[in-house]
Amino acid sequence: MRENRWATVVAALCASAALGLVAPHAAVADPEPCSYTSPDLRPTLTYGDTGEAVKQAQCLSNVWGGEPPKLALNGVLDSATLEKIEWIQVCHGLPPSGVIEDRTWQVLYRPALDCYHPYPA
């Protein structure tokens, strides 16, 4: 009886793994709606910076579903953008610097499906 139960559990885990339900995977941001700059243009951005690259980062950050608010695509790395970038960095195990650099651009283009770190109130 116990062997049957283990066989059922193992079969269910194998089926889940085959369907991609067990291991989380990264979502790929659709670059089409975020076409303010080329995906290859990834300058380092800090608080107060402005321009199309900031607008691209804001657009990519809006791909995240759920709790985080959508940012206005105003092209200004303001306090709302800074807060969201820091949250995204924490979700990916990066230091929450608010600086958009190469590693942060990577996660903006390939966001995690879920983040278990609560968004600041």
Mind explaining what this structure looks like?
Helices cover 40% and strands 0% of the residues. The chain is built from four helices and no strands. It has helices spanning 2-19, 52-61, 79-91, 102-109. The N and C termini lie far apart (50 Å). The model is unreliable at 12-29 (pLDDT under 50).
Essential attributes:
121 residues, 0% strand, globular
Mean pLDDT: 79
Strand content: under 5%
* Helical content class: 40-55%
Number of DSSP E strands: 0
Number of distinct helices: 4
Class by SSE composition:
mainly alpha
- The shape is globular
Radius of gyration: 18 Å
| Topology as a string of helices (H) and strands (E) | HHHH
Distance, first to last CA: 50 Å
Point out poorly predicted stretches. Answer: 12-29
In this structure, how is the largest beta sheet organized?
Answer: none
Outline of this structure?
By secondary structure, the protein is an all-alpha fold. The chain contains four helices and no strands.
Fold blueprint:
Elements: H1 2-19, H2 52-61, H3 79-91, H4 102-109
